[in-house]
Write a structure and sequence with these properties.
Strand content: over 45%
Largest sheet: 7 strands, mixed
Distance between the termini: 34 Å
Number of helices: 0
Order of helices and strands: EEEEEEEEEEE
Number of strands: 11
Shape: globular
Structural class: mainly beta
Radius of gyration: 13 Å
């Protein structure tokens, strides 16, 4: 299993970024896919998740209405579109995957930094 994030960067408050995660080594239709973030001095926070088989989604209250999680099955890519970014969104963003019957996320990417000033 491999998860590789890309697309982070620096943006001014109010701007937008899209981060992506190319995944491989598992059947996505049986896996929950999610984005987490971690900033210095803060606990890791679940940002958004996408659940099989319906593709239903859930979001942290702090990003609801601003972030959108999506998956492209053909490209094996999980994306997070982030709009109306705030300085408090600054963090390392990680994608993660778990088999749908498990509760813990077993597979993690290396992370991509998002900085909002």
């Amino acid at each position: 299993v491999q998860l590789v994030e890309s697309g982070g960067g620096s943006v001014q408050a109010g701007g937008s970024l899209n981060v992506s995660c190319v995944y491989s080594g598992f059947t996505a239709s049986s896996y929950c896919l999610a984005w987490f973030r971690k900033s210095p001095g803060m606990e890791r926070e679940g940002v958004a998740a996408l659940f099989p088989p319906s593709g239903s989604t859930t979001y942290a209250d702090s990003v609801k209405g601003r972030f959108t999680i999506s998956r492209d099955n053909a490209k094996k890519t999980l994306s997070l579109q982030m709009n109306s970014l705030k300085p408090e969104d600054t963090a390392m963003y990680y994608c993660a995957a778990r088999w749908y019957r498990r509760t813990d996320y077993d597979y993690w990417g290396q992370g991509t930094q998002v900085t909002v000033s």
